[in-house]
Structure formats: C-alpha cells, structure tokens
Amino acid sequence: MENRPLQVLTVPTAPYPDQRPGTSGLRKKVYVFQSKRNYLHNFIQSIFSSIDLPDRQGATLVVGGDGRFFSRPAIGVIVQMAAANGIGHLIIGQHGMMSTPAVSCVIRKYKAIGGIILTASHNPGGPNGDFGIKFNTANGGPAKEEVTSKIYQISKTIEEFAICPGLRVDLQTLGKQAFDLENKFKPFTVEIVDPVESYANLLRNIFDFAALKELLSGENHVSIRLDAMHGVLGPYVKRILCEELGCPANSAINCVPLEDFGGQPPDPNLMYATDLVDSMRDGQYDFGAAFDGDGDRNMILGKHGFFLTPSDSVAVIADNIFCIPYFQHTGVRGFGRSMPTSTALDRVAKATKIELHETPTGWRFFGNLMDAGMLSLCGEEGFGTGGDHIREKDGLWAVLAWLSIIATRRQSLEDILKEHWLKYGRNYFTRYDYENVDIDAACDMMEDLEILISDKSFVKQRFAVEDKIYQVEKADNFQYTDPVDSTITRNQGLRIIFSDGSRIIYRLGGTGAEGATVRIYIDSYERKLIFEDTQVQLAPLATIALKISQLHHRTGRNGPSLIT
After folding, report:
1. Helices 145-155 & 39-49 angle (0-180, nearest 10)
2. % of the chain residues with pLDDT over 90
3. Most Cβ neighbours (<10 Å): which of 147, 148, 263, 539?
4. Within 13 A of 271's CA, how many CA atoms are on the CB side?
5. Catalytic machinery residues
6. Do β-strands 335-338 and 377-380 pair in parallel, antiparallel, or remain unpaired?
7. Which residues form the Alpha-D-phosphohexomutase alpha/beta/alpha domain (predicted)?
8. Phi, psi angles (nearest 5°) of residue 367
9. What is the distance between the alpha carbons of residues 166 and 177, in angstroms, rounded to a whole number?
C-alpha cells in the first residue's frame, strides 16, 4: 500500500476526428499513437466515458493483449486512467499479455464490466507496424455498434481526461497490488494473473483431455506441429498441448512472444505461416496448425500440407460436433457463418435440421445470438472458428475440436474431409485481397458496382467464360436483421448469386491501419467430387468478378496482395 494517496488529475486535451473503432477496435500505425499528443489518452478516456459512472464505479475491468510493440507503455496509461475514472479492480495478464479468447473467458468468469485488448490481430508489429485497442463488453465479446458509435462520438468532442500519473504497476509479479487515491474511499487494486490458467481450465471442461492425451502421446499417437508465430499463444501451446497433453516440446515452434512477431505479420495463412507450411511438406507430421498474434485465428493443415479452408473446417466440426463432450451436455442450438463464408455449413445445417444464421462479418453478431441461446458453433472465412463457451473466435479451441474428431474417428484430416465432400459435395472457395487501395478510388468503384447490380436488367444476365455459362439469379447489398433485437445492419457486401448457387461477393473495409482493402470472395459448389485445384476451378468466376467490377482499371492494381 502506498503511504500517501496518489493524486488524480484532470488534463485538458483536444479531439481527433479519426478515432472511429471498426469491428476489431481502433487500429493505426504505431507512430500515430506515439507522435500525436494524447492520442492514446483520448481514446481510452472515450471508452471509460462511454460507460455510465454508476456502472464503472468500483467495477472490475480486464486488460490483456498480444504483447506487440507499444503494449507496455499503453498498459501503463490504461492503469493510470482506469484508477482515475473510478474502476475499482483491474485484472491484467502477467507481462501485460493475455490472448483474446482468454480475455473473453476471464471477463465472463469474474463478471467484469468488460475488457481492453491491445492487439492488431494478424497485422504486422514492431515500431513500424500496427497497434490496436479493442473494447469488449460484459458478455466477453466485441462491443456492439451502438457502443463503438458512442465511443466515437465522445472522441470527437473530448476536452479532458482523468489520470493518476503517479501510479506505477508491476506487471511481472503475480498477485494483488493496492493503491490509495485522493478522494477515494476504497483502494484501487490491480491483480496480475497467470494468463493461461483460467482459459486452460475452461478447455478442460469442454474437451476430453484424457482422449486427447492418448491421441497425442499414446502408443499410436499422431505427430503434430504447432506454430504460434511469435504471438501471445506460445505459452498456451506449451502449457496445454506440450506439458498437459504430452506433445513433444519440439512439436511447438515460434512460441516465444516477440514485439515484432519475428519480422513477419502473425497471420496464419499459406503466405505468412511459412515455417509451418515448409515443415509439413515431407509428411513427417500428421496435423499442423498456426495461430495469429492474439490467438483467435487459426490455420489447419493435414499431412503433406493438405490445406483445410476455414469454411470447410466449421462445416466438418458441425457434422461431427458430438465428438466434443461439451456439446453432448449442452446440445446444439444453432450454427452460424458470416455472409462471405462458403455455404458448406448450410448443407450440414439442412441435413441435421439445425437452424443456420447468416450474419455480417464481425463476431459481435454471433455473440448476440449466443447470448439469446440461439447459436452454439460458428465460423468466418477469415480463419476464425468458435463455440458459445466464450464470445470470441478461438484458435486453440478450433484445433482441439479437430483433434477430438480425429481421436474419435481414427482417420486422418484429409480422409475425414474427403468423406465429408462425398457426403455433402464440395464448396470451392477463395478470397482475393487488394490492400492499401486509394480510399476514394475504392469507394467510387463500389458505388458504381452497386448501381450496376441493382439495375433490374442485371438479374438474368448470362456470363460465359470458356465452356461455362453463369446466369445471375440475385444481386443485392447484403443487409441483416438480427432475430434477437430486430436491429438492421445494412451495406455489408455486394452479392451476386448465380443460378447454380455460385457467388461473387465484394466488400470494402478490412482491419488494416491505412488505406482501403477491397475483398472479392468467390464460392462455387460442386455436388460431384472432383479434385481440381481451387484457383483453376474458380478461374471462370474470377474472370467474371474482375470484368463486372473493372477492379484492376479502377484501382490501378494488376493483381491481389493476398490470395486465401
């Protein structure tokens, strides 16, 4: 306990016009937070001011993040401002680190008012990289749009912030620290917690750890390779997969968290998770997975690098959901996917007579359905999969779900997936990302494209490429009516749906720190099983997508930055 009460100050400031949080919080280049006076302080104050004073007075708040560059000084400021704004108790991961799924878990476990997560997810780190601040609410999930809009409105008119500049917290030592503040009747407490344990305990109650241990370290064990990409999940992988479930220590690579993630974006896809991809090629490992910076995304590979799309992943988990003990106890209330995600999950939902929800991109939409008891399993094409155990997508959960299926069925990942395709047919799916496009050019292109596809004459148009003909059955700008509260979310992506069920989708936005990202999604269903390369199979639809949008001409780009 400090001997003298710490002073609380009110500091004048001036607003910034660009602090609108996206679906994943506020993301900017590190230098923006470092160079613009009070830029960090303004946004943190806007978060606190968005919470009514009676609700935050004495409340508990969770703080964590992926450990990227600038996290520690930011946590120092958050602690000082939380104390000055009436928060009673902070729970912080040791060293300031806690995965996004673990933050969601801890918020729910301790009934916190919410959590602040310092991450830019799969975006680059380091002094020249990106930094992000995300606010999760009391359900453990990302703040709804009404909350983020309130934060943004406050940030545009902010005149002062409250801070306790003399407060210093030790992030290394586990346990509670207490501080007396001026004009406060109760001490402000900070609790440094093991970032893994609460989350690991949750997983123990979801999966059959004995069966998983037998699969991973028993007599006829499978060999796996796990790549944490120098993100926050390294200690989780080591503790849970290696120490508890018995994987050899050398099964886990890049498990030391680094502020710059080793110089590569911590993005679990075939372009950036090269250490995993290279190590899987020779067949030494039966199963591989990579995780992003904050641990909510995953990429899964089978033997010889057999690639599992996120769309197929959630569909197969859905079809084998009772391999996971948790769902044997809770039952299955519904399946969900984001609109751009392939329709593979729809076929499982139809066959099992379980309701399917198609939502906009953004986990908060799933969270609302889960809170209402309408959703148990969901996924997004952007390498995100999860259940209703928390209110975030969960990379390690997805891996343990797949290992549970393999343990039950005693088949390889590739065999399981090929049997799934035989049963349901196959969705070929790809996404083209055009990153850091000029914002005005991207917006103009999308506006003109919407005018084009909204014309009544566009429906029934036929497009021929080589020997294939596609006829437009429907075209619109996707909007979503939430079945829980009837809120309507508009302008969520331009859709062209063809008579054979194939889809072309255009979306503007993304979660980068600068410029615009134009994304084109292509989804095509084949009932008859053919083993064609995805890009070859989808080439005719890709040609049509580029012809309709004139994207290369309108943006000056000759090709995508990333193909997944």
Report:
1. 130
2. 90
3. 148
4. 12
5. 121
6. parallel
7. 19-160, 198-303, 328-424
8. -60, -40
9. 14
Residues in contact with 240: Cβ distance below 8 Å, sequence separation at least 6, in sequence order: 196, 200, 203, 396
Per the CB < 8 A criterion, the answer to whether 287 and 306 are in contact is no
Nearest of 41, 45, 55 to residue 114 by alpha carbon: 55
Task: Tell me the backbone φ, ψ of residue 487, rounded to 5 degrees.
Answer: -70, 145
> Rounded to the nearest 5 degrees, what angle is found at the Cα of 398, between the Cα atoms of 484 and 334?
25
Amino acid (1-letter code) at residue 215: L
Any idea of the CA torsion for 482, 487, 488, 489, to the nearest 10 degrees?
-80
Residue that the structure tokens 């586990």 belong to: 174
What does the alpha-carbon distance between residue 115 and residue 142 come to, in Å, rounded to a whole number? 9
Q: Do the bridges between strand 60-65 and strand 480-481 make them parallel or antiparallel, or are there none, so unpaired?
A: unpaired
Helical ranges in 50-118 per DSSP H: 53-56, 71-84, 100-109
The residues that bridge with 136 in the sheet, in sequence order, are: 115, 142
Amino acid (one-letter) located at 81: M
Instruction: Dump pLDDT digits (tens) for 332-347.
Output: 999 999 999 999 999 9
Q: Give the pair of three-digit tokens for residue 88.
A: 């009673």
Calpha distance 128→116 (Å, rounded): 22
Q: Which residues contact 487 (CB under 8 A, 6 or more apart)?
A: 481
Chain segment 439-490, per-residue pLDDT in tens: 899 999 999 999 999 999 999 999 999 888 999 999 999 999 999 999 999 9
Q: What angle do CA 482, 343, 286 make, to 5 degrees?
A: 120
Fill in the amino acid letter for 521. Y
